Amino acid sequence: MAIADEFWKQIRTNLPVSTTRIAGENRYETAIKISQAGWKESAQSVILARGDDFPDALSGAPLAYDADSPILLTHSHKLDPNVKEEIFRLNPQVVYILGGDVAISPEVEQEIIDMDIKTHRFGGADRYETSALIGAYLPSSDTAVVANGTKFPDALAVASYAAENAYPIILTKQNEMPKASAKLLKNYPKSLAIGGTAVISEDLFNTLPDATRYGGADRYETASIIARELNPSYKAFVSTGLEFADALTGSVLAAKTESSFLLVHPEKMQDAVLQAKEDLGIYHFTILGGPKAVSPSIETELQGVK
Q1: pLDDT tens-digit map of 138-177
Q2: Residue 60 counted as domain residue
Q3: For position 306, what pLDDT does the model report?
Q4: Structural domain count of the chain
Q5: Cα–Cα distances in Å, from 266 out to 58, 71, 301?
Q6: What is d(CA 192, CA 178) in angstroms, rounded to the nearest whole number?
């Protein structure tokens, strides 16, 4: 086995790095393209999240993976016709709605019900309660992921790994664990704290159960550390680290295809990303979003073209 591994290490350094891009005209269309790539025939269920704001969606990836469901995006008060068409194509038995009535209105839910599809809403009084409701719905595990709920990058950097392992993503504030989050966390003997002290303070970290921190100097390094240390693969999904939508909807497909996940700046390559590429020997990148999300120059650098 060791000989085979060594042989593969030698071979992979000579393999050309390839890229594919999954992209639509906007985040709603990109989510549809991701859904079509991963669920070609149908899906038992669909996760529906608000497309223009992140809080209620941050904990959705483990739920989506557990239910083998794509994540689609919606406007708060109206279901995009193309999204509605994709739900119709998938023919799910249930649509899981992330967030309360302010995030996704009862009118949107009624549109789904009118399609003769059941709905199940995870809607708490705030993002922390919503996160806890989602986490409580997941199968039991011994580990929880803890991430800052006021910022999206760290939760999304770990989303595909958490999803693949059925670990809930429990949201926190920098210095204080909200009540709903603290209550759910009591069920888990171990935890992973995502991000540095600017997002999870040392004092708060010290209160977490048997915690290990995975955090870099910025969002890109944090995602790179997670990929290298927790979720290594020769394949990786890549999305912009400046917006949440593509990382959210792509995280489930990354988990489904056993791929690592990296965040990039749209225009400027980060050393941490190249380090992860080298350390993991990544030979294929799936880029999420159009050229404004991840520029052609970044794609070229990922390919290693000079």
Answers
A1: 999 999 999 999 999 999 999 999 999 999 999 999 999 9
A2: yes
A3: 47
A4: 1
A5: 21, 23, 12
A6: 17
